[in-house]
Amino acid sequence: MNSLPPVDVLKSPVAADLAGKIAVVTGSTSGIGLGIAAALAKAGASVMINGLGDAGAVEETRRQLAETHRVEVFYDDSNLMDPVGVADLMNNAVDVFGRVDILVNNAGIQHVAPIEEFPVDRWDAIIALNLSAAFHATRAVFGAMKANGYGRVINIASAHGLVASPFKSAYVAAKHGLIGFTKTIALEGAEFGVTANAICPGYVWTPLVEKQIDEQAIAHGIPRDQVVRDVLLASQPNKRFATVEEIGGLAAFLASGLGASITGSALPVDGGWTAH
Q1: What is the pLDDT of residues 122-177, one digit of tens each?
Q2: Global confidence as pTM
Q3: CA dihedral for 96, 101, 102, 105, sign (positive or negative)
Q4: The one catalytic residue among 75, 150, 171, 203
Q5: Does the annotation count 150 as an active-site position?
Q6: Residue ranges per structural domain of the chain
Q7: Domain 18-203+243-275 has CATH 3.90.850.10
Q8: Could you tell me which of 209, 110, 103 has the C-alpha nearest to residue 156?
Q9: How many CB atoms lie within 10 A of CB 232?
Q10: C-alpha dihedral sign at 239, 242, 246, 251
Q11: How far, in Å, CA of 47 to CA of 55, rounded?
């Protein structure tokens, strides 16, 4: 009969160890992407961040990540709406670090409109950034990951990759497609030590969401707390936003050796939204 582990083992925190690993996180100059980059850096990974923003602010973010976590952090401003830009980002990462062990496809945009009014250029842009960029980035490093016997592809999908909402046709289509893509590459990498998973957040507290609260409060003529509960979090049973730290912690876990047997999964972090 097996005995229980010692008490100190039971109380030990589970921590991802990514020392020596190399990560690329798209859309990581703010919000969820920055939270993921910070979590990977905290676990010991060197990181290439990418995204938009004021040059001075981005450099300060890069410097703080590097100095706080004592890892190498570089910034690339490639435009991921263009396949050439995606290739430039991945090539730059390989030039700087020698390889890519962890790829987090996080960059994305949104537009809300009825289908009969949905601008074609907005559809094309959302599919290009939210879905096609993940394909191009993964394609660029997947072969090397297989050859190295280790790789982690983490796609930031959404609760809208599992369920739909009105007026979000392009976003819902892209995120559903991203989950299908995740499952496919999980199967292709399974025998080579390469995993692929999709994280599916509900509403996460970011500066962009905070801005939406103020806008919705004005539009509906209701207080901020009512916007949060009855508008933004109407579908989330726990009635709270996830945090970027929660998303980052899950990404770091999946990237580590502790996540080696988790692949092909779409993991909701949505307060119960998709449990309905």
Answers
A1: 999 999 999 999 999 999 999 999 999 999 999 999 999 999 999 999 999 999 99
A2: 0.93
A3: positive
A4: 171
A5: no
A6: 18-203+243-275, 205-241
A7: no
A8: 103
A9: 17
A10: positive
A11: 18
